[in-house]
Specification:
elongated, two-stranded antiparallel ribbon, 58 residues, mainly alpha, 2 strands, 7% strand
């Protein structure tokens, strides 16, 4: 697992729904709106795999 400049662990397997840059990245990657990504995070949790599955399901 990567660490940040502050020494904290960074988990790339999760989507931080409150972080605009992460929501924008997922939306661009999946070709959907930011609102769709936020809904997917809210319903499926913050696991990147689950969010991807939730988006592709709709």
């Amino acid at each position: 697992m990567a660490t940040t400049s502050r020494g904290r662990a960074q988990d790339r397997a999760k989507v931080a729904g409150g972080q605009d840059h992460e929501v924008r990245y997922e939306a661009k990657k999946e070709g959907v709106s930011k609102a769709t990504v936020k809904k997917a995070v809210k319903s499926a949790g913050n696991s990147r795999k689950k969010v991807d599955a939730e988006i592709s399901r709709h």
